[in-house]
Amino acid sequence: MARFSPICRGRRCTPPARAARPTRGSGNAKVAFSDDPLWYKDAVIYQVHLKSFFDANDDGVGDFQGLIDKLDYIAELGVNTLWLLPFYPSPRRDDGYDIAEYKAVHEDYGKLADAKRFIAEAHERGIRVITELVINHTSDQHPWFQRARAAKKGSASCGQICAAQGSQSQPHSLPGRKGE
Which of 25, 34, 94, 156 has the CB geometry, 3.0–4.6 Å to 98, for a possible disulfide? Predict the structure, then answer.
């Protein structure tokens, strides 16, 4: 006899639900996601670092196509949410968290169209996709950082890079500032 752990919310307990998942090639099947704002409390989340997951084009780096190729396997594991670590263009001095462009995909992982296709394919299988959006941590290659670095002392833009050195009192100690 199979045993399960009940999920208790407030006064009622229910067994964990397993949604039927369409398989690849099932057309444009739409899987309805729960509208429960606490969906994440019962989610089976699988964290994925694209660069080390699965390499579909055999260049030594994981990519969106590799992730698409393994979606059925991930769904069979009972995963209903994929959490992607940063996959944006980056010089990778901080493992991809030093983001240079928030509206694009690092070329090693594919193109923006590949990311969109991955999301659509995941949704067809009833898998949510969440990503890390690290808006307070940009690369020195990001236009915001470049504008701040070029700004005059005392300007609002200049103040944006104070934390880069860990000191609000020395925002102009960064190498490469104009006039240094």
Answer: 94
